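Incident log, entry 3
Record: Aldehyde dehydrogenase (150 residues)
Problem: checksum mismatch between cached and fresh output.
Input:
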Amino acid sequence: MDTTHDTIEILNDLISINNDRINGYEKALKDTKSNNADLKPLFTHMIDESRTLRNALGKEVQGLGGEMGKGTTASGRLFRAWMDVKAVFTGHDRQSVLSNCEAGEDAAQRAYLDALQDDHLPAYLREMLAQQQSTLRSERDRIHSLRSRA
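Fresh output:
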């Protein structure tokens, strides 16, 4: 298989994961009640961060001659559907919202780990993806810490 095509596919998968993150945090932002208003700036930051990561990935896709993906992953759509179902039973309490966000962050970590395990990924992209994964890991740890204190 063509290495450039594989690389574009990997990058578009990560674009989809970041789109999932954007959609997930937009949902969390919408579902956040006034007693958890302190989470709104965090969720807004996460949305902005994913847009920045997604755009950097898209620039690389275009540089390789590909077209930047615009959708979300199937698992992302399922994850958001599960958040909707779960919300019926939990009422969007702080613990549930943060737990769902943490699960989404875990999915993003797995996606980046899978991408970094590709042997044909050019070194400059491997470095970029490792940096993005590190950024997302810090954010995942932040969410985890908030959930643990909830």
